[in-house]
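Reopening: structure tokens for the flavin mononucleotide complex, inputs below.
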Amino acid sequence: MSGASGTPYAAAVLRALLDVGESVDLVVSRASRLTLLDETGISFRDAHWRDDLREWLARGADGKPGAFAVDLDGDRVRYWAAGDLAAGPSSGSYPAKGMLIVPASTACVAGVALGLSKDLLQRAASVTLKERRPLVVAVRETPLNGQTLRHLVALDDAGASVVPASPAFYAGATHIQDLVDFVAGRVLDAAGVAHGLYRRWDGELGGGARPA
Ligand SMILES: Cc1cc2nc3c(=O)[nH]c(=O)nc-3n(C[C@H](O)[C@H](O)[C@H](O)COP(=O)(O)O)c2cc1C
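Re-run output (same inputs, fresh job):
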């Protein structure tokens, strides 16, 4: 997670990965703690990451506590401090299938596009590209300046999937969580992860219309 708005997208992706039995290595950038605090009221602590993560993931996009049942027991989630450049995901020999940056700030997009590796998140992204593993970048900013657009093209050229956090309205959304799940689902689609987060287009117009 980097420090763009959109922590509900990250929560939806994390829940879906855990639901399908994937293991997750979680990195929360320093700026992302600010967006988490702003968007959820949760002050994310390295030393108590499991408690804070459990509380966060149980919330819906509207902030209501206990909306989701979350099982964080066992070792399916590993948390790495963003400043820990000796962490597992900083090496290509660490057994990772790929990496999802959700949400991705324009600063993170720039850092990864330029190969800066200034923190664990950026380093792990560079490693993912050099190992030719799937890298999905869910950028969240609007409008986009030319610099960011060029960085996004560089990421696409390098093999990453750029998946803007831009919800669609054809899938019949009636709640904020539906819009969040659409973006999270498209992120997982780009990584080839099975999920049932949104209703797919079936070729019939009118499926997204709300009842009168
Ligand atoms: C509450 C808040 C919301 C932000 N929203 C965005 C955003 O939507 N997109 C973005 O690119 N940056 C956003 N920023 C700015 C980034 O956090 C900032 O550029 C930071 O340096 C990103 O660092 P990181 O990529 O290491 O996480 C936001 C910052 C704050 C405090």
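The beta strands are 24-28, 77-81, 99-104, 135-139, 161-162. The mean pLDDT is 95. Marking as resolved unless the reporter disagrees.
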